[in-house]
Amino acid sequence: MSDTGTVQGRGAVRAYIGSFTSAGGRGVLAADVDAETGALTVTGASDALADPSFLALAGPVLHAVSEAEAGAVAAFDVSGPAPLPLGAPVPVDGAGPTHLALADGHLLTANYTSGSVTALPLAPDGTARAATSVLRHEGGGPVTARQAGPHAHQVLPDPSGRWVVSVDLGTDSVRICALDPATGTLRLHGETALRPGTGPRHLAFHPAGTHAYVLNELEPTLTVCRWDAAAGVLEPLGETPVVPDGTTGPSYPSEVVVAPDGRFLWAAVRGDDTLAVLALDPEGAKASLVATVPCGGTWPRDLTLAPSGRHLYAANERSGDVTWFTLDPETGIPARAGAIEAPAASCVVLG
To answer: Which residues contact 134 (CB under 8 A, 6 or more apart)?
Structure first.
């Protein structure tokens, strides 16, 4: 079922919010974005897909994963005020997909429960066709409760477009793959081992494309890596904490984003319920924690930077809201500017 809501001040930038329908979420929400203030105004929603926990935008088509045992993806037409489903969900041949991205005419999903990555070709209308390749990860880690087997948590193309990288929380590693655009086949090129027990969750690239930053979930740290796009090699350089010294209680980092000018990096930390601000050196080879601020809610599952680089959005899953912040251009420190209600929010994308 879909509802259209009220359209107010539609602008060039729109926001789309994923949420867990099994926890009371409204599914996929669409909102207008005020370019000056960053404020969101919800214009419609669709609960046609169960648990659309992560989203990816391609023009007027929005893709969503269904984070269920029988994982699937679905497409929505977002040219109007409310998301409209485009056909039936398509199976990903994997369980519990948590992330998706677009690369070389394909939709890619990271399937957490089954520890695999799926490639699905896109049809001319932008919807996904049946899966052409499923690359299964192997291995585990020392935190037996979370790392008994592989758990692919994120998949995305590198800035050069030559490679696909997948971050696996269960195996403490990042895999580098090649995608054949003609056949939709994924081929493993290499694997970078990170410190055992860190539980890597998500990765973000420096705008120069020479470094990458892996945010670890099982230990609140960021692993800074050198990225060689020509060779397809990821090299760990060191770790930086994303919580202050002396922080007590469990902290579970979730998402990392990098400023367009490469000066700052922000990480969301659940449990601690903060946003960490890290300064990057001019080359992007070193990161240092400079501040943490409250996330504006509870359990920030996702963090998104506006295209302008002026605003930051946190999807606070357990408090059921999306909070936006204005970024200080000199210090990178976020200042809370507002929030909207979004039960069981899991993801925000802008475009």
So the answer is: 92, 93, 94, 116, 117, 118, 119, 186
